[in-house]
Design a protein that fits this description.
Chain lengths: ~140, ~140
DNA sequence: CCGGATCCACTTTGATACTG
DNA sequence: CAGTATCAAAGTGGATCCGG
């Protein structure tokens, strides 16, 4: 990539109205989205569902370290935001299948860009943390 | 937009080893980064510093709704991760200037992609939330 | 099989007051 | 001006038990 002279397109660089609209800082869509997917499990779930639909316990086994509670909460939150679709099959033992909605699938794209950045610069971040740990 | 058949490049779509490496879910660089910038103020600070260097109280006035404590903590965290540079001028009234490091500046790019997505789909998310509120 | 409910611990954020 | 200290409140994640 062309690299360091980041042009920063998009509205994120648009001149702010002067002081940040303190009453709307909670409503900043960027922050809002980041806080949604920035939790402990959402990304993992989104990535997994991006590969194919999963059933609840399948997802549970797929992640292992997550508790039922958090898996349920995460899925509900993603469903509420229209990122995940939940379909219940009225079989004898209840069966529920989760999949990504088109909206959720579209989120995978910018998420990939951030993923690339994270992977590419994980070393830099780790180094910076080390440096500040063993600071003078 | 070409939209729905998201190709999903990058390693985020690379086949996972089968069950998610449960022991490393904490170390997933994507989640790690997202949780860093997914807090309440980091993005705001990064975006502001992306425009030009700021001094502490200048930043404080720029955001308003943030407390001194959180501004300090946010800046320290960003500095620790090598995203923000802190320069102290030993003037009579102490003066500290914060600016984005090249690393921090490079983060602005994928952040912009996510920002675009958030802005573009904020309506969809809002609608989804509404729908689930007044659900059958 | 899916997931709600309760209780508890840890983390994050915030209000206020004080300092070099 | 640029922080730090302290306390309190809220949010988040987890263990376990219970129900449809």
């Amino acid at each position: 990539m062309s690299g360091t002279h980041t042009d920063v397109p998009s509205m994120i660089s648009a001149p702010l109205p002067s002081p940040v609209p303190a009453d709307e800082h909670e409503r900043c869509p960027v922050t809002d989205v980041l806080r949604r997917v920035g939790d402990k499990w959402s990304i993992l779930v989104i990535v997994l569902l991006g590969r194919r639909p999963y059933r609840f316990n399948e997802l549970h086994r797929g992640i292992e370290a997550i508790s039922q509670r958090m898996l349920t909460r995460t899925l509900r939150a993603l469903e509420t935001d229209g990122l995940v679709h939940r379909e219940v099959f009225p079989t004898v033992p209840p069966s529920v299948e989760y999949s990504l909605t088109p909206l959720g699938r579209s989120l995978l794209v910018p998420l990939s860009a951030l993923a690339d950045w994270a992977v590419e610069h994980r070393g830099d971040i780790a180094a910076a943390r080390q440096a500040s740990t063993s600071d003078t």
